[in-house]
Specification:
By secondary structure, the chain is mostly beta strands. It has a single domain, classed as Porin (Beta Barrel). The strands form 2 sheets. The chain has an 8-stranded antiparallel β-barrel. Strand 13 and strand 14 form a beta hairpin.
């Protein structure tokens, strides 16, 4: 009888020990945190494609001709820019596009009409600061430099026209509104400080001057962040 009782007690002890171990395992299992998926980091590269309105300031002169002035045509052209983010806030942007400009006499030389036509290639590099505390709305400001190349130049009322390549400054403000982490829409305004010198021959007389183009570049388009 005593052996039977001891057997029952021993079995009961084993059952209780097993239950305690299972409960301890359950507590340990519940305390293990579940790993959350880490979102993939965005690439530092971004591109934009814009439709760009080029609005020059109508000013300039021919040396030695009192009251002379110049007038330039407005254009719309496509533009591509490439942005590299060093951090979430600091980036550099290279702006690429080309357009043409008709150069017209104004002021005392208005009677000349269309002096000539030139194509303009103004690659512009800006350093940008991007604000990141507005959610999907991501405004930025920038400043930089451009080197403008004038090519395919054709004289009309003039006998000959040569607009000289030149450096200039650039200011920029704009924003991206991101639809998702990759795609967004963009609005951008730039001011180029562009005042090239030129040589012109009219009626066999060689002259020189300065074209104060200083255009506003107003663009809108799409953004893609890799």
């Amino acid at each position: 009888m005593k052996r039977f009782a001891k057997g029952i007690l021993a079995g009961f002890a084993l059952v209780m020990a097993g239950s305690t171990a299972m409960a301890a395992d359950a507590v340990v299992a519940e305390s293990v945190p579940v790993a959350e998926a880490v979102p993939a980091a965005l690439s530092p590269w971004q591109i934009r494609l814009r439709a760009l309105s080029v609005i020059p300031m109508n000013s300039g002169y021919v040396n030695g001709v009192a009251g002379s002035d110049l007038d330039y045509s407005k254009t719309i052209t496509p533009e591509l820019d490439i942005t590299y983010y060093f951090t979430d806030n600091f980036a550099a942007e290279l702006i690429l596009g080309t357009t043409y400009s008709n150069i017209n006499g104004a002021g005392s030389i208005e009677g000349l009409g269309k002096v000539g036509k030139v194509w303009i290639l103004p690659p512009t590099l800006t350093a940008q600061y991007h604000f990141t505390n507005f959610g999907a709305f991501k405004p930025y400001v920038g400043a930089g430099i451009n080197y403008t190349v004038f090519y395919n130049q054709k004289a009309d009322a003039a006998d000959d026209l040569k607009v000289k390549n030149t450096f200039g400054g650039a200011l920029q403000v704009g924003f991206d509104y991101m639809i998702n982490e990759h795609w967004g829409v963009n609005f951008d305004v730039k001011k180029l400080f562009l005042e090239p010198k030129f040589d012109v021959t009219v009626g066999g007389e060689k002259m020189s001057g300065k074209a104060k183009i200083n255009p506003w570049l107003i663009g809108t388009g799409i953004t893609y962040r890799f």
